[in-house]
Structures are given as structure tokens and as C-alpha cells.
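Handoff note, outgoing to incoming analyst
You'll be picking up this chain. Sequence as last confirmed:
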Amino acid sequence: MKKNNYPFIVSAIYFTVLIWSGINPKDYYTWILEVTPGVAGLIVLAFTYKRFRFTNLLYTLMLIHCCILFVGGHYTYAEAPLFDWIRDLVHGTRNNYDKIGHFAQGFVPAMIGRELFLRLKVVNGRTWVGFFSVCVALAISAFYELVEWWTAILSGSSAEAFLGTQGYVWDTQSDMLWALIGALTSVILFSRYHDVKMKEVGVK
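Most recent structure output, in case you need it:
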């Protein structure tokens, strides 16, 4: 893959999945709520692209996260077909696609935080960089849970699909746990690979 083609390929995949997700989704209100973070993220990246460009690794991870959001927006997190099949196979009681989303919600922001901390020299020491990267991911996860709560209060029953609790009383805590697992996984298992990718673009 030619380096110059990478932004166009990522953009093409992003918009293809986004457009697909918006064609006859389960519920348009839920779709808007679910895809908004991914669209907002694209706007931020577009405005900052000339001043700060992430590694291709980060853009790929962001794309994967957006695709997870768009699929969840199309079907709703409680009714993603593949995870319905898995639920039935193991005789489970809920569709766990939302846990994939919250794992990504920890994994990807932690990697974004790590790259920002290292490249902008915000934090000294790799251990502290890892620690604060996990903290960033948990803060985002907690804020997202607050957004879900506020949306539920303002929208009433129409926000049920967005919340996706599926009757699980500990859903909020479970979501944050999966975000923590995702953040720890990225920092512990992918830091060296991330360092290699940053060195390829001249970051020491």
C-alpha cells in the first residue's frame, strides 16, 4: 500500500460503513446517538490534520472504533446479528456486542492519549505515560456513561436502545470495566509496537 493512498483508503472505508449504517437502521434516533461520536471525531481530525498527524496505526484503530459505532448504530447494540447468534449458541441472556464497543472505548483512547503524551512531551517517563493513558480512557468511559444517563433523562423511553442495558443492573459498571480492560490491553501489549510505528515517522 502506498503511503499517499492511505488517507483516501481510510476515508473510503469510513464513509462506506457510515452510509451503509444510515440506510434503514433499526431506529434513526438511536442511529444518530450512536454515530455522533464517530462523526464528531472525524471533524476534529479534519481540522487538526495539518497541525498534528497521528501515526497510521492510530488512524486505523480510530477507523475500527468508528466502524464498531456505526454497526451498533445500524442494528442497535442489543440486536447485532452475529452476537445474537453467539448468545443463542451459549444459551446466554443478552447480546454482548456493546462490550466490544466499550473494550474499544478503552483501547483506542488509551493509544491516542499515549501518542499525544509522548509526541507532545506532556508527561515524562514511559510508566507515567502508560498510567495517564489508562486514566484518559477511563475518564472518557465515565463521561460517556454520564452522557447516556443525561440522554435517558431527557429522552425517556426513547433512549432505551441507546442505553442497551438489556435489563442488566450492573451494565454501567460492566461497561467501564471493559473500557479498563481495553485500555490496559493496549498499554501493556501494544506499547512496543506503537513505539515502532512512531519511530517510523521520526518520533523517538
